[in-house]
Amino acid sequence: MTFVLGIIAALFIGLTLGLIGSGGSILTLPILVYIFHVPTELAILYSLFIVGITSAVGAGKAAYHKNIDYRAAFLFGVPSVISIYLTRNYVMPLLPNELFSLGGFSFSKDIYLLLLFSLVMFIAAYKMIRSDSLKELPLSQNTHWISFAIKLIIQGLLVGLLAGLIGAGGGFVIIPVLINLMRLPIQKAVGTSLFIIALNSSVGFLGNFQQYPKIDWALLLFVSGASIIGIFNGLLLGTKIKGSKLKKYFGYFVLLMAIYIVLAAFLIKTH
C-alpha cells in the first residue's frame, strides 16, 4: 500500500511543479515524512534532491520552448544560491536538537522544523487562493529597472533562506513576483520558476549530502522518477488549463495539508 501511495504522491509532486511552477516541495516533505517515514531533517535534504532534479527536467523543456526569462532568473537565482549555502552550512548546524521540554513533551528539532514548514504552507495557501493577485499585467512604461532588480534580489535571499531551512523551493513566492513585478506571462513565469527552483535545490543538496552517509538512493531515484513523469504531464496540461484557477484549488489543498502537519507534529511521533 505504501508503494502505491508513494507512486501517486510522487506523480503529484511533478504534476504541480509542471502546472503552476510551485508546490512540489510543499508536497515532498510531508510525503517523505508520513508515507516513507524519513526523519524530518533528512527528508529536507531528500526534498532538495527530488524537487531539484524534477525542476531541472521541467526547466530544460521550458528552455527548449523559450519559456525562461534568464534576466529574472539571474537576479533571483544568484542571491538565493548564496543564501541557501549560508543557511545550510552555518544556520542549520546552530539549531538545537531540543528547543525545550514540558512535562513529557519534548519540542524537538523535527517538530519545530515541521511547524515552520506548516507556517510557510499557510502563507503559500493564502497567496495561491488569492488568485486575483496573479493576473498577467502589461509592464508599465514608468517601471524603474533598478527598483524591481533590488526587489528581485531581496526576494531571492528570502527564498534561499526558506530552501535552506525547510527544503522549500519557494515557487509560491517566485511565481507572484515574476508575474506582478516582471509582468511575465504565466507559461514563462512557470519556466523561470522551475529554473530558479532547480538551481536552489541542487546547490542545497550538493552542499550538504556528504554529511549524511546513509542516504537511501533507491528511494530518491524512485520518487524522483515518478515525479519527473508527473512534471511532463503537468507542463502539457498547463498549456490547456488556466493557471489562476489551478493555483486557487491547489491553495485549498495546501491549506488542508498544513493543518494536518500541525496536528501530526503533536499527535504523531516524529522520527
Kindly summarize this structure in a few lines.
The protein has helices at residues 2-20, 24-34, 40-64, 70-91, 109-129, 145-166, 171-180, 186-206, 217-238, 243-267; strands spanning 98-102, 105-108. It is mainly alpha-helical and 271 residues long. It has one domain (2-267).
Write out the strand line-up for the largest beta sheet, numbering strands in chain order. 1-2
Order of helices and strands: HHHHEEHHHHHH
Number of helices: 10
How does the overall form come out from the CA principal axes?
globular
Low-confidence stretches: 136-142
Strand content: under 5%
Number of domains: 1
- Give the N-to-C terminal Cα separation: 20 Å
Main beta sheet: 2 strands, antiparallel
Class from helix and strand fractions: mainly alpha
Number of strands: 2
Q: Mean of residue pLDDT? A: 77
The whole-angstrom Rg is 18 Å
List keywords for this structure.
2 strands; mainly alpha; two-stranded antiparallel sheet; 271 residues; 10 helices
Write the layout of secondary structure elements.
Blueprint: H1 2-20, H2 24-34, H3 40-64, H4 70-91, E1 98-102, E2 105-108, H5 109-129, H6 145-166, H7 171-180, H8 186-206, H9 217-238, H10 243-267
Helix pairs in contact: 1-2, 1-3, 1-9, 2-3, 3-8, 3-9, 4-6, 4-8, 5-10, 6-7, 7-8
Provide a descriptive summary of the structure in words:
This protein is globular. The two termini are 20 Å apart. It has 271 residues and is mainly alpha-helical. Helix 1 (2-20) runs antiparallel to helix 2 and helix 2 runs antiparallel to helix 3. It has helices at 2-20, 24-34, 40-64, 70-91, 109-129, 145-166, 171-180, 186-206, 217-238, 243-267; strands at 98-102, 105-108. The longest helix is centred in the first third of the chain and has 25 residues, at 40-64.
